[in-house]
Specification:
By secondary structure, this protein is mainly α. The protein is built from two helices and no strands.
């Protein structure tokens, strides 16, 4: 029985190029998570009670203590 050795690619550290839109999406996602977990009405000001309640309920859904 003959055994052959396969050539495996060396696992060198190569940089992966990310497109600019991926960085933008990541920044927007982080800003959304921050707003969802930290917004207490100061950012949205008066008149945005519906959005505040949405964020408030979202914090409860995620298990983030808010009061």
């Amino acid at each position: 029985m003959e055994t052959t050795t396969s050539t495996l690619a060396t696992s060198s550290a190569e940089r992966i190029a990310l497109p600019a839109w991926a960085w933008l999406v990541m920044a927007m996602a982080l800003a959304t998570v921050y707003a969802l977990t930290m917004e207490n009405g100061a950012t949205l000001q008066a008149g945005a009670t519906v959005l505040h309640e949405l964020f408030h309920d979202g914090r409860h859904m995620l298990g983030v203590p808010c009061h």
